[in-house]
Backbone:
Protein backbone atom coordinates (compact mmCIF):
# COMPACT_ATOMS: atom_id res chain seq x y z
CA UNK A 1 0.00 0.00 0.00
CA UNK A 2 1.20 3.53 -0.74
CA UNK A 3 2.48 5.02 2.51
CA UNK A 4 1.04 8.36 1.59
CA UNK A 5 -2.49 7.02 1.32
CA UNK A 6 -2.97 6.98 5.09
CA UNK A 7 -1.13 10.23 5.70
CA UNK A 8 -3.26 12.86 7.40
CA UNK A 9 -3.46 16.15 5.57
CA UNK A 10 -3.14 19.25 7.70
CA UNK A 11 -3.85 22.04 5.26
CA UNK A 12 -5.15 24.72 7.60
CA UNK A 13 -2.96 27.46 6.18
CA UNK A 14 -4.03 26.75 2.61
CA UNK A 15 -7.70 26.49 3.52
CA UNK A 16 -7.53 29.79 5.40
CA UNK A 17 -5.79 31.41 2.43
CA UNK A 18 -8.48 30.12 0.05
CA UNK A 19 -11.24 31.42 2.31
CA UNK A 20 -9.68 34.86 2.50
CA UNK A 21 -9.12 34.94 -1.26
CA UNK A 22 -12.85 34.25 -1.64
CA UNK A 23 -13.68 36.96 0.94
CA UNK A 24 -15.68 34.50 3.04
CA UNK A 25 -16.16 34.30 6.78
CA UNK A 26 -15.68 30.99 8.57
CA UNK A 27 -19.41 30.80 9.10
CA UNK A 28 -20.16 31.33 5.39
CA UNK A 29 -17.60 28.76 4.22
CA UNK A 30 -18.76 26.24 6.84
CA UNK A 31 -22.31 26.60 5.53
CA UNK A 32 -21.14 26.13 1.93
CA UNK A 33 -19.26 22.96 2.86
CA UNK A 34 -21.92 21.57 5.19
CA UNK A 35 -19.76 21.53 8.32
CA UNK A 36 -19.93 23.41 11.59
CA UNK A 37 -17.95 26.67 12.03
CA UNK A 38 -16.12 25.15 15.02
CA UNK A 39 -15.01 22.15 12.91
CA UNK A 40 -13.74 24.48 10.18
CA UNK A 41 -11.95 26.56 12.81
CA UNK A 42 -10.16 23.44 14.08
CA UNK A 43 -9.10 22.55 10.54
CA UNK A 44 -7.72 26.04 9.88
CA UNK A 45 -5.70 25.84 13.10
CA UNK A 46 -4.37 22.38 12.06
CA UNK A 47 -6.06 20.77 15.05
CA UNK A 48 -8.00 18.47 12.71
CA UNK A 49 -6.91 16.97 9.38
CA UNK A 50 -8.75 17.62 6.13
CA UNK A 51 -10.83 14.59 5.18
CA UNK A 52 -11.19 13.24 1.66
CA UNK A 53 -14.90 14.10 1.72
CA UNK A 54 -14.15 17.72 2.59
CA UNK A 55 -11.58 17.95 -0.21
CA UNK A 56 -14.21 16.73 -2.68
CA UNK A 57 -16.69 19.33 -1.41
CA UNK A 58 -14.04 22.05 -1.82
CA UNK A 59 -13.49 20.94 -5.41
CA UNK A 60 -17.22 20.93 -6.21
CA UNK A 61 -18.11 24.14 -4.35
CA UNK A 62 -15.17 26.42 -5.24
CA UNK A 63 -13.74 24.75 -8.37
CA UNK A 64 -10.49 23.93 -6.54
CA UNK A 65 -7.82 21.90 -8.35
CA UNK A 66 -7.06 19.16 -5.83
CA UNK A 67 -3.77 18.33 -7.56
CA UNK A 68 -2.34 21.67 -6.46
CA UNK A 69 -4.39 22.39 -3.35
CA UNK A 70 -3.27 19.21 -1.58
CA UNK A 71 0.39 19.83 -2.25
CA UNK A 72 2.52 21.15 0.55
CA UNK A 73 5.26 23.68 0.17
CA UNK A 74 7.28 20.66 -0.91
CA UNK A 75 10.82 19.49 -0.27
CA UNK A 76 12.19 22.15 -2.62
CA UNK A 77 10.63 25.02 -0.68
CA UNK A 78 11.63 23.49 2.65
CA UNK A 79 15.18 22.95 1.39
CA UNK A 80 15.38 26.52 0.10
CA UNK A 81 14.17 27.88 3.43
CA UNK A 82 16.65 25.68 5.31
CA UNK A 83 19.47 26.92 3.10
CA UNK A 84 18.47 30.54 3.70
CA UNK A 85 18.34 30.10 7.48
CA UNK A 86 21.75 28.37 7.41
CA UNK A 87 23.34 31.61 6.20
CA UNK A 88 25.89 33.12 8.64
CA UNK A 89 23.56 36.12 8.72
CA UNK A 90 21.38 34.08 11.12
CA UNK A 91 24.26 32.83 13.27
CA UNK A 92 23.10 32.32 16.84
CA UNK A 93 19.46 32.10 15.74
CA UNK A 94 18.85 28.40 15.04
CA UNK A 95 15.53 27.69 13.33
CA UNK A 96 14.35 24.10 13.93
CA UNK A 97 13.23 22.05 10.96
CA UNK A 98 9.67 21.64 12.23
CA UNK A 99 9.23 25.43 12.20
CA UNK A 100 10.57 25.60 8.64
CA UNK A 101 8.11 22.88 7.58
CA UNK A 102 5.29 24.67 9.39
CA UNK A 103 6.14 27.94 7.64
CA UNK A 104 6.15 26.27 4.23
CA UNK A 105 2.88 24.46 4.96
CA UNK A 106 0.86 27.10 6.80
CA UNK A 107 2.20 30.38 5.42
CA UNK A 108 3.28 29.67 1.81
CA UNK A 109 2.97 33.31 0.76
CA UNK A 110 5.14 34.46 3.67
CA UNK A 111 7.66 31.70 2.83
CA UNK A 112 7.79 32.82 -0.81
CA UNK A 113 8.20 36.45 0.24
CA UNK A 114 11.00 35.57 2.68
CA UNK A 115 12.83 33.55 0.00
CA UNK A 116 12.48 36.37 -2.51
CA UNK A 117 13.87 38.85 0.02
CA UNK A 118 16.77 36.53 0.91
CA UNK A 119 17.67 35.91 -2.74
CA UNK A 120 17.74 39.66 -3.36
CA UNK A 121 19.99 40.12 -0.35
CA UNK A 122 22.30 37.23 -1.37
CA UNK A 123 22.58 38.53 -4.94
CA UNK A 124 23.39 42.02 -3.68
CA UNK A 125 26.00 40.63 -1.29
CA UNK A 126 27.65 38.58 -4.04
CA UNK A 127 27.66 41.64 -6.31
CA UNK A 128 29.21 43.80 -3.57
CA UNK A 129 31.90 41.20 -3.01
CA UNK A 130 32.67 40.99 -6.72
CA UNK A 131 32.84 44.78 -6.97
CA UNK A 132 35.14 44.85 -3.94
CA UNK A 133 37.37 42.38 -5.75
CA UNK A 134 37.50 44.71 -8.77
CA UNK A 135 38.24 47.84 -6.74
CA UNK A 136 40.44 46.19 -4.13
CA UNK A 137 37.97 46.87 -1.33
CA UNK A 138 37.94 44.74 1.77
CA UNK A 139 34.38 43.42 1.69
CA UNK A 140 32.95 41.06 4.29
CA UNK A 141 35.24 38.09 4.93
CA UNK A 142 34.08 34.68 6.12
CA UNK A 143 36.36 32.75 8.50
CA UNK A 144 37.73 30.78 5.51
CA UNK A 145 38.36 34.01 3.56
CA UNK A 146 40.07 35.62 6.56
CA UNK A 147 42.36 32.63 7.15
CA UNK A 148 43.19 32.36 3.44
CA UNK A 149 44.13 36.04 3.28
CA UNK A 150 46.17 35.83 6.48
CA UNK A 151 48.14 32.86 5.14
CA UNK A 152 48.60 34.63 1.80
CA UNK A 153 49.80 37.72 3.66
CA UNK A 154 52.62 35.54 5.02
CA UNK A 155 53.32 34.27 1.48
CA UNK A 156 52.26 30.86 2.78
CA UNK A 157 55.58 30.67 4.64
CA UNK A 158 55.97 30.09 8.40
CA UNK A 159 59.68 29.68 9.18
CA UNK A 160 59.02 28.93 12.85
CA UNK A 161 56.89 25.93 11.87
CA UNK A 162 59.47 24.77 9.32
CA UNK A 163 62.11 24.81 12.05
CA UNK A 164 59.91 22.78 14.42
CA UNK A 165 59.10 20.33 11.64
CA UNK A 166 62.74 19.74 10.71
CA UNK A 167 63.70 19.13 14.33
CA UNK A 168 60.89 16.65 14.90
CA UNK A 169 61.54 14.86 11.59
CA UNK A 170 65.20 14.40 12.53
CA UNK A 171 64.21 13.03 15.95
CA UNK A 172 61.84 10.52 14.34
CA UNK A 173 64.55 9.33 11.96
CA UNK A 174 67.02 8.91 14.84
CA UNK A 175 64.50 6.89 16.87
CA UNK A 176 63.71 4.38 14.13
CA UNK A 177 66.08 4.68 11.15
CA UNK A 178 64.89 3.01 7.98
CA UNK A 179 61.25 2.71 9.06
CA UNK A 180 58.38 4.42 7.25
CA UNK A 181 57.22 7.80 8.51
CA UNK A 182 53.88 6.43 9.70
CA UNK A 183 55.57 3.65 11.68
CA UNK A 184 57.97 6.11 13.35
CA UNK A 185 55.22 8.64 14.10
CA UNK A 186 52.85 6.02 15.54
CA UNK A 187 55.61 4.73 17.79
CA UNK A 188 56.39 8.22 19.10
CA UNK A 189 52.73 8.99 19.75
CA UNK A 190 52.43 5.81 21.80
CA UNK A 191 55.75 6.05 23.65
CA UNK A 192 55.72 9.77 24.48
CA UNK A 193 52.02 10.58 24.66
CA UNK A 194 50.37 7.23 25.44
CA UNK A 195 48.28 7.66 22.33
CA UNK A 196 47.64 4.57 20.16
CA UNK A 197 46.35 4.82 16.58
CA UNK A 198 43.49 2.63 15.40
CA UNK A 199 42.00 2.23 11.93
CA UNK A 200 38.23 1.66 11.95
CA UNK A 201 35.64 0.74 9.30
CA UNK A 202 33.95 3.58 7.44
CA UNK A 203 30.54 2.68 8.87
CA UNK A 204 31.94 3.17 12.37
CA UNK A 205 33.69 6.46 11.57
CA UNK A 206 30.64 7.68 9.60
CA UNK A 207 31.52 11.24 8.49
CA UNK A 208 34.98 11.40 10.10
CA UNK A 209 38.26 10.52 8.41
CA UNK A 210 40.32 11.40 11.49
CA UNK A 211 39.12 11.81 15.06
CA UNK A 212 40.87 12.08 18.42
CA UNK A 213 39.05 10.31 21.26
CA UNK A 214 39.97 12.25 24.43
CA UNK A 215 38.17 9.82 26.77
CA UNK A 216 40.12 6.72 25.72
CA UNK A 217 43.05 8.85 24.54
CA UNK A 218 43.47 7.35 21.08
CA UNK A 219 43.56 8.51 17.48
CA UNK A 220 40.92 6.98 15.21
CA UNK A 221 41.42 6.86 11.44
CA UNK A 222 38.96 5.80 8.74
CA UNK A 223 39.80 2.84 6.55
CA UNK A 224 38.96 5.02 3.54
CA UNK A 225 42.22 6.97 3.93
CA UNK A 226 44.99 6.05 1.55
CA UNK A 227 48.59 5.62 2.79
CA UNK A 228 49.60 9.26 2.21
CA UNK A 229 46.43 10.66 3.81
CA UNK A 230 46.80 8.29 6.75
CA UNK A 231 50.42 9.39 7.26
CA UNK A 232 49.34 13.05 7.14
CA UNK A 233 46.59 12.41 9.71
CA UNK A 234 49.17 10.87 12.08
CA UNK A 235 51.53 13.81 11.43
CA UNK A 236 48.70 16.24 12.27
CA UNK A 237 48.08 14.55 15.63
CA UNK A 238 51.82 14.42 16.34
CA UNK A 239 52.10 18.15 15.59
CA UNK A 240 49.29 18.89 18.07
CA UNK A 241 50.68 16.57 20.72
CA UNK A 242 54.22 17.97 20.55
CA UNK A 243 53.65 21.65 19.80
CA UNK A 244 50.13 22.62 20.83
CA UNK A 245 51.40 25.58 22.88
CA UNK A 246 53.36 27.05 19.96
CA UNK A 247 50.45 26.57 17.55
CA UNK A 248 48.03 28.20 19.99
CA UNK A 249 50.38 31.15 20.48
CA UNK A 250 50.73 31.66 16.72
CA UNK A 251 46.95 31.54 16.24
CA UNK A 252 46.38 33.97 19.14
CA UNK A 253 49.00 36.39 17.82
CA UNK A 254 47.14 36.69 14.51
CA UNK A 255 44.26 38.56 16.23
CA UNK A 256 41.49 36.74 14.39
CA UNK A 257 38.12 38.55 14.48
CA UNK A 258 36.27 35.76 16.31
CA UNK A 259 36.72 32.35 17.90
CA UNK A 260 35.65 30.21 14.88
CA UNK A 261 38.19 32.06 12.72
CA UNK A 262 40.92 31.59 15.33
CA UNK A 263 40.19 27.86 15.53
CA UNK A 264 40.21 27.53 11.74
CA UNK A 265 43.54 29.34 11.61
CA UNK A 266 44.99 26.96 14.20
CA UNK A 267 43.91 23.99 12.08
CA UNK A 268 45.59 25.59 9.07
CA UNK A 269 48.79 26.16 11.05
CA UNK A 270 48.71 22.59 12.33
CA UNK A 271 48.38 21.35 8.75
CA UNK A 272 51.42 23.44 7.87
CA UNK A 273 53.44 21.92 10.71
CA UNK A 274 52.31 18.41 9.76
CA UNK A 275 53.54 19.00 6.20
CA UNK A 276 56.84 20.30 7.59
CA UNK A 277 57.29 17.09 9.60
CA UNK A 278 56.47 14.88 6.61
CA UNK A 279 58.49 16.99 4.16
CA UNK A 280 61.29 18.75 6.10
CA UNK A 281 62.16 22.05 4.43
CA UNK A 282 65.84 21.51 3.65
CA UNK A 283 65.52 17.97 2.33
CA UNK A 284 62.37 18.73 0.36
CA UNK A 285 63.73 21.91 -1.26
CA UNK A 286 66.98 20.21 -2.23
CA UNK A 287 65.18 17.21 -3.73
CA UNK A 288 62.82 19.51 -5.63
CA UNK A 289 65.77 21.40 -7.17
CA UNK A 290 67.79 18.32 -8.12
CA UNK A 291 64.78 16.55 -9.70
CA UNK A 292 63.47 19.56 -11.63
CA UNK A 293 60.47 19.80 -9.34
CA UNK A 294 59.32 16.37 -10.48
CA UNK A 295 56.21 15.76 -8.38
CA UNK A 296 56.29 12.00 -8.96
CA UNK A 297 59.83 11.85 -7.54
CA UNK A 298 58.84 14.01 -4.58
CA UNK A 299 55.85 11.76 -3.90
CA UNK A 300 58.04 8.66 -3.93
CA UNK A 301 60.83 10.17 -1.82
CA UNK A 302 58.60 11.52 0.97
CA UNK A 303 55.65 9.12 0.78
CA UNK A 304 53.12 11.87 0.10
CA UNK A 305 50.33 12.48 -2.39
CA UNK A 306 50.46 14.66 -5.50
CA UNK A 307 48.41 17.33 -3.74
CA UNK A 308 50.53 17.27 -0.59
CA UNK A 309 53.75 17.66 -2.59
CA UNK A 310 52.26 20.40 -4.78
CA UNK A 311 51.00 22.31 -1.74
CA UNK A 312 54.43 22.05 -0.08
CA UNK A 313 56.02 23.59 -3.17
CA UNK A 314 54.10 26.81 -2.51
CA UNK A 315 55.81 27.23 0.89
CA UNK A 316 59.48 27.28 -0.16
CA UNK A 317 60.36 30.89 0.66
CA UNK A 318 63.28 30.50 3.06
CA UNK A 319 65.69 33.36 2.19
CA UNK A 320 68.75 31.07 2.13
CA UNK A 321 67.07 28.28 0.16
CA UNK A 322 64.23 29.60 -1.96
CA UNK A 323 62.31 27.39 -4.28
CA UNK A 324 60.42 28.32 -7.42
CA UNK A 325 57.61 30.69 -6.33
CA UNK A 326 54.58 28.57 -7.18
CA UNK A 327 50.87 29.25 -6.88
CA UNK A 328 48.31 26.50 -6.38
CA UNK A 329 44.58 26.23 -6.95
CA UNK A 330 42.27 23.28 -6.25
CA UNK A 331 38.91 23.04 -8.01
CA UNK A 332 36.10 20.48 -8.25
CA UNK A 333 34.17 19.51 -11.37
CA UNK A 334 31.50 22.12 -10.63
CA UNK A 335 34.14 24.89 -10.66
CA UNK A 336 34.17 25.46 -6.88
CA UNK A 337 37.61 26.50 -5.65
CA UNK A 338 38.59 25.06 -2.27
CA UNK A 339 42.27 26.03 -2.15
CA UNK A 340 44.23 29.12 -3.21
CA UNK A 341 47.85 29.47 -2.16
CA UNK A 342 50.83 31.31 -3.58
CA UNK A 343 54.41 32.04 -2.60
CA UNK A 344 54.44 34.56 -5.44
CA UNK A 345 51.90 37.06 -6.68
CA UNK A 346 49.47 35.25 -8.99
CA UNK A 347 46.36 37.49 -9.28
CA UNK A 348 43.73 35.25 -7.70
CA UNK A 349 40.10 36.30 -7.73
CA UNK A 350 38.92 36.42 -4.13
CA UNK A 351 35.32 35.35 -4.73
CA UNK A 352 35.20 34.05 -8.28
CA UNK A 353 36.30 30.84 -9.93
CA UNK A 354 39.06 30.07 -12.39
CA UNK A 355 38.93 30.99 -16.06
CA UNK A 356 37.49 28.18 -18.23
CA UNK A 357 40.32 28.75 -20.74
CA UNK A 358 42.80 27.43 -18.23
CA UNK A 359 43.45 23.68 -18.59
CA UNK A 360 42.88 23.27 -14.88
CA UNK A 361 39.31 22.42 -15.88
CA UNK A 362 40.13 20.23 -18.88
CA UNK A 363 42.34 18.05 -16.64
CA UNK A 364 39.13 16.16 -15.77
CA UNK A 365 39.11 14.84 -19.36
CA UNK A 366 42.48 13.12 -18.82
CA UNK A 367 42.32 11.77 -15.25
CA UNK A 368 45.68 11.22 -13.59
CA UNK A 369 47.72 12.84 -16.38
CA UNK A 370 49.68 16.08 -16.04
CA UNK A 371 48.71 18.71 -18.64
CA UNK A 372 50.80 21.84 -19.17
CA UNK A 373 49.96 25.26 -20.56
CA UNK A 374 51.39 28.76 -20.82
CA UNK A 375 48.80 31.36 -19.85
CA UNK A 376 48.73 35.15 -19.95
CA UNK A 377 46.81 37.20 -17.40
CA UNK A 378 45.23 40.59 -18.27
CA UNK A 379 48.28 42.45 -16.92
CA UNK A 380 50.42 40.83 -19.63
CA UNK A 381 52.21 38.49 -17.20
CA UNK A 382 52.90 34.97 -18.51
CA UNK A 383 52.80 31.85 -16.39
CA UNK A 384 53.80 28.22 -16.91
CA UNK A 385 51.13 25.94 -15.42
CA UNK A 386 50.47 22.26 -14.95
CA UNK A 387 47.29 20.54 -13.83
CA UNK A 388 46.26 17.05 -12.78
CA UNK A 389 43.26 15.38 -11.20
CA UNK A 390 43.44 13.89 -7.71
CA UNK A 391 41.11 11.90 -5.49
CA UNK A 392 39.29 13.53 -2.60
CA UNK A 393 40.49 12.54 0.87
CA UNK A 394 38.23 9.78 2.18
CA UNK A 395 35.33 8.32 0.24
CA UNK A 396 31.57 8.13 0.47
CA UNK A 397 28.77 6.76 -1.65
CA UNK A 398 28.92 9.77 -3.97
CA UNK A 399 32.69 9.88 -4.55
CA UNK A 400 33.77 8.58 -7.95
CA UNK A 401 37.49 9.37 -7.82
CA UNK A 402 39.50 12.01 -9.71
CA UNK A 403 36.86 14.53 -8.63
CA UNK A 404 39.33 17.33 -7.85
CA UNK A 405 41.94 19.04 -10.00
CA UNK A 406 45.15 20.67 -8.80
CA UNK A 407 46.55 23.60 -10.77
CA UNK A 408 50.18 24.55 -10.10
CA UNK A 409 52.12 27.31 -11.82
CA UNK A 410 54.92 29.83 -11.74
CA UNK A 411 56.06 32.84 -13.74
CA UNK A 412 57.31 31.80 -17.17
CA UNK A 413 60.85 32.99 -16.35
CA UNK A 414 61.16 30.12 -13.83
CA UNK A 415 59.84 27.40 -16.16
CA UNK A 416 63.31 26.32 -17.36
CA UNK A 417 63.88 24.88 -13.86
CA UNK A 418 60.96 22.47 -14.22
CA UNK A 419 61.13 18.98 -15.70
CA UNK A 420 57.66 19.57 -17.19
CA UNK A 421 58.94 22.34 -19.48
CA UNK A 422 61.81 20.37 -21.02
CA UNK A 423 61.59 20.21 -24.79
CA UNK A 424 59.35 23.28 -25.01
CA UNK A 425 60.37 26.50 -26.74
CA UNK A 426 59.98 28.91 -23.85
CA UNK A 427 61.16 31.88 -25.96
CA UNK A 428 58.10 31.67 -28.22
CA UNK A 429 55.54 29.42 -26.50
CA UNK A 430 51.90 28.97 -27.45
CA UNK A 431 50.11 31.30 -25.05
CA UNK A 432 46.47 31.18 -23.91
CA UNK A 433 45.02 34.50 -22.66
CA UNK A 434 42.93 34.01 -19.51
CA UNK A 435 41.14 36.29 -17.09
CA UNK A 436 39.86 36.22 -13.52
CA UNK A 437 36.28 35.18 -12.74
CA UNK A 438 33.89 36.17 -15.54
CA UNK A 439 32.21 38.88 -13.45
CA UNK A 440 35.61 40.52 -12.99
CA UNK A 441 37.08 39.91 -16.45
CA UNK A 442 37.19 42.62 -19.13
CA UNK A 443 38.55 40.37 -21.89
CA UNK A 444 36.38 40.50 -25.02
CA UNK A 445 35.31 38.72 -27.10
CA UNK A 446 35.23 35.41 -25.24
CA UNK A 447 33.01 32.49 -26.22
CA UNK A 448 33.48 30.91 -22.76
CA UNK A 449 32.12 33.93 -20.88
CA UNK A 450 29.47 32.87 -18.36
CA UNK A 451 28.51 36.32 -17.01
CA UNK A 452 29.05 39.99 -17.91
CA UNK A 453 31.53 42.06 -15.87
CA UNK A 454 29.89 43.73 -12.90
CA UNK A 455 31.33 47.14 -13.75
CA UNK A 456 30.48 47.29 -17.47
CA UNK A 457 27.03 47.82 -19.03
CA UNK A 458 25.73 45.23 -21.49
CA UNK A 459 25.50 46.22 -25.16
CA UNK A 460 22.51 44.35 -26.58
CA UNK A 461 22.04 44.51 -30.36
CA UNK A 462 19.31 42.56 -32.10
CA UNK A 463 21.03 43.19 -35.47
CA UNK A 464 24.16 41.23 -34.65
CA UNK A 465 25.34 38.29 -32.54
CA UNK A 466 28.74 38.19 -30.86
CA UNK A 467 30.70 35.02 -30.09
CA UNK A 468 30.31 36.16 -26.50
CA UNK A 469 26.83 35.70 -24.97
CA UNK A 470 27.35 38.95 -23.03
CA UNK A 471 28.90 41.73 -25.15
CA UNK A 472 29.57 44.79 -23.04
CA UNK A 473 30.61 48.42 -23.39
CA UNK A 474 34.32 49.06 -23.49
CA UNK A 475 35.09 45.46 -24.41
Residues:
Amino acid sequence: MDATADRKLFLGGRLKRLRRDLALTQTAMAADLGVSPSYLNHIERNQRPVSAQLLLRLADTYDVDLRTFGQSGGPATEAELAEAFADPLFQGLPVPRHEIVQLAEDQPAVADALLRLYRTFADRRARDRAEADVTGGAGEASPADWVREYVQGRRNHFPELDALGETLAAALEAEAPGESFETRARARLLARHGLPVRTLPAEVMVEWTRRYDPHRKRLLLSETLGPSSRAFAVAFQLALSEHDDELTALADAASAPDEPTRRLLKVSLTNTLAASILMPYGAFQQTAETTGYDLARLQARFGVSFEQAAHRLTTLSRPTARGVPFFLMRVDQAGNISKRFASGSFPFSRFGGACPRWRLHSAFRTPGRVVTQVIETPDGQRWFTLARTVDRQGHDAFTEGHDLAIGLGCELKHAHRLVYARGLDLTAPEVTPIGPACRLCHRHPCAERAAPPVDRPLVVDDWAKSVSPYPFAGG
